[in-house]
């Protein structure tokens, strides 16, 4: 009888009850999607940029002086670094190109001097302000599901043109070509709402963990005969009445 009751009660919780905090997050998520739609514009040109790997290039080596020291790099690799802005050397450091000179760093950097990561886009700051949160809903997967940050710039990024950072190496190069197209839509996310969503998501994860702990304890105590069936049901009723759990 106990096993049957516990199984039925567990099914009831899984199917019929959801954490109130999760429901609140889902609602705000829907609101944010509506706001994003209101801030979407069409006619954008989207390209991709990547970091070349020196090991992928086998052309002749050219000498490069960096801070008084001489290095040798593949000529084709150097040319690609001039286009992309950064490249990963065969010894693990990153070679950058800016203000008509090469320099080395342990990580590639965006225009804010933060590490260049997937989710970074280069924009024209006259059109999109720096550090904006942006989606490109009609871009190919998985890029259509990413919230981008406009943390980078480039001399060729002018007007309604966005450049998406796609990663390192030949696969990233393929992605850069795959994402390149005209007539994309871009949506600018309200920053205040975005931060609220992040905070609520953190809170909902915490509350869901606590809810699971409470429910697990109720079942455990019932299985151990520490509480009766009536007490178990009353405990769940209390969680619902306190809106810790919400019935669909």
From TrEMBL:
InterPro entries: 3D_dom, RlpA-like_sf. GO terms for biological process: peptidoglycan turnover. Coiled coil: none annotated. Pfam families: 3D. It comes from the Archaea. SUPFAM superfamilies: Barwin-like endoglucanases. One of its GO terms (cellular component) is outer membrane. Gene3D superfamilies: RlpA-like domain. GO terms for molecular function: hydrolase activity, hydrolyzing O-glycosyl compounds. Residues 120-176 form the 3D domain. This is 3D domain containing protein. It comes from Nitrosarchaeum koreense MY1.
């Amino acid at each position: 009888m106990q096993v049957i009751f516990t199984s039925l009660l567990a099914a009831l919780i899984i199917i019929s009850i959801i954490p109130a905090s999760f429901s609140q997050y889902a609602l705000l998520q829907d609101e944010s999607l509506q706001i994003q739609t209101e801030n979407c514009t069409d006619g954008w040109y989207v390209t991709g940029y990547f970091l070349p790997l020196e090991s992928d290039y086998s052309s002749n080596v050219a000498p490069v002086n960096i801070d008084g020291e001489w290095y040798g790099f593949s000529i084709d690799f150097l040319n690609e670094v001039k286009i992309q802005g950064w490249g990963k050397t065969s010894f693990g450091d990153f070679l950058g190109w800016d203000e008509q000179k090469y320099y080395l760093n342990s990580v590639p950097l965006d225009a804010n001097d933060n590490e260049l990561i997937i989710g970074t886009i280069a924009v024209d700051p006259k059109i999109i302000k720096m550090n904006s949160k942006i989606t490109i809903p009609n871009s190919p997967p998985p890029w259509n599901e990413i919230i981008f940050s406009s943390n980078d710039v480039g001399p060729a990024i002018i007007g309604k043109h966005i450049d998406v950072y796609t990663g390192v190496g030949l696969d990233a190069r393929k992605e850069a070509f795959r994402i390149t197209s005209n007539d994309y839509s871009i949506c600018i996310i309200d920053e205040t709402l975005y931060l609220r969503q992040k905070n609520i998501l953190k809170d909902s994860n915490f509350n869901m963990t606590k809810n699971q702990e409470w429910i697990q304890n109720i079942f455990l105590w019932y299985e151990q005969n520490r509480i009766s069936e009536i007490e178990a049901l009353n405990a769940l009723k209390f969680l619902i009445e306190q809106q810790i759990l919400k019935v669909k």
